[in-house]
Every structure is written in C-alpha cells, then in structure tokens.
Amino acid sequence: MPELPEMENYRIQLSKHILDLPITGVTVNREKSLNLSQADFINELIGRKIIFVERRAKHLLFHLDNGGRLLLHLMLGGLLYLGSRDDRPSRSTQIEISFASGQVLYFIGLRLGYLHLLSAKEAEDALSHLGPEPLGRKMNEALFISLLSQRRGSLKTALVNQDLIAGIGNCYADEIAFAAGLRPTAKLQDLNAEDLSGLYRAMRDVLTEMTDAGGYMEMPLTKDDTLTGGANELCRVYDREGESCPRCGDKIVKSEMNGRKVFYSPGCQHER
Questions:
Q1: Are residues 113 and 171 in the same domain?
Q2: Residue 151 a catalytic site member
Q3: Distance in angstroms (rounded) separating the CA atoms of residues 24 and 55
Q4: Is 111 a catalytic residue?
Q5: 235 domain residue, yes or no
Q6: 104-108 and 93-99 beta bridge pairing
C-alpha cells in the first residue's frame, strides 16, 4: 500500500503538471470507487480546475477552483499515471480525468481505493481522526516520545496506527525499526526515552530519504519520470527475507504479527 513517501512524491510531481488546467473529460469504469453517481461526479468535474494538491497521511486532496475537494486513497494496489492515450500503461483503469493540456490522469488499481468528491468541510471531517504528520511542523521529538510513551503493545503496531502518527505503513515501519536497531516486535512499555529518541531520529531519516528517492511505487508517474520507485533499492530489510543484513551480515527474517508481514535482522535488531 502506498505510504507517505509514495504519496508525497505523487503530490510534488502532479503539482508541476495539472494545476490550473480545465478538466475536459472524465471516464468512470468503476462507480464503486466514487461516493456519487457516475453522472453527478462527471458533471461536477467538467470545466473545473485543480488549483492545489495536498497530501494528508496516505491520502491526496485535490483542491478544486470551486472549493470542492477530491479525496484519493489508493489503498492496496493503487497507482497513478499521467500521460497521453498513446503512452498509457496496459492496465485497467477505474477513473480517468482528462485535462486541456491533452494529458490524462489515470487512476489504476482502485479495487479497494476510492476517489470521493467532497466539500472542504466533509474532507476535513473525513481526515479528522488522523494523528500528526511524522515530518510535519507540529511533530517534534518531545511530542513523539509523549505519544509512544502512553501506548502499550508492539512498536510496529504503534507506527502503523494512523490515529497515532499518520502516513507510515508496513514497509517503512520495518525500515524505521531497522534504522533504530529495534525489532518491530519490541514492546513500547520496555523502551526508555533514549530508545524513543533514537526511534524518532530514525523515523525522520528514513521517511526523508525514501521521499527524496521517489518512494517504492513500481510504475513511473509519467513516461519521463525517472524518480518514482527509487526507494526500492534503498530498503534494507523490507521484502529482503533470506538476504544478508547490510549492517551485520545476518540473514533477514520474515515473520508475521497480527496479520502483518514483519522483516528484521535478528543479529542487530533487539527487543530493546
């Protein structure tokens, strides 16, 4: 599932290409991805312009020139592609939005994801449960330690809890734990302030590095996009089962915790 680095990469790149362009066409191939009828959704978008693209946690918010918001959550398997009819990928699309520039924004793999048209207040309410952004202005070391010090249970469960800290999922929770030298299964109640301080620095370092590298999405956003997917090569433990740990040389282990895959290096990651 796309996480903060992937969605932030999309936000940055889309902001360079689609702002202030009239929407000239909308194709809906899966009405269940919408919150309105297909006809109403299309009628509301034709002629509108996207004036700003915002990211909140794993969501994108497309701000429309009439004050409305398109709220996107790609969920598992979702992708975006921006291009022409000629260079579009050979993938089924659920929604397509055409712009006056001739480019089309393709929403791919929205079997679980959605694109909802909301008012500004409705969008704010829909996202009101989310915790602070891990790289946001409101987040600092003291707040991070305070948030986690009040919790019990495993480190990974806390990191992927969107109500606690927004934007981290399976992949980067494991990468953050690795950078901090802690196992994803470590119990929060066993960690001291020094452990949590190191975890905070690891969170910032990993998310910044992976965002700068374009996230791990498998497909470029545009035909000229050479950035998206660059984080794939930077993952140290996630999806690296059986490979040698780049830090200690031990074999990376894959296990499962509460239905989630967990990757770690037993040689250099500890319960505390």
A1: no
A2: no
A3: 24
A4: no
A5: yes
A6: antiparallel
85, 101 Cβ separation under 8 angstroms: no
Question: Residues 48, 55, 58, 240: which is the catalytic one?
Answer: 58
Which member of 3, 6, 133, 175 is catalytic? 3
- Confidence (pTM): 0.95
Residue 149 counted as domain residue: yes
Any domain includes 269: no
2 is catalytic: yes
Active-site option among 2, 5, 184, 220: 2
134-155 pLDDT, tens digit each: 999 999 999 999 999 989 999 9
Task: Give mean pLDDT, residues 12-35.
Answer: 98
What's 181's domain CATH number? Answer: 1.10.8.50
Average pLDDT score over the chain: 96
How far lies 238's CA from each of 153, 174, 193, 232, 235, in Å? 21, 6, 26, 9, 6
DSSP conformation class of 21: P
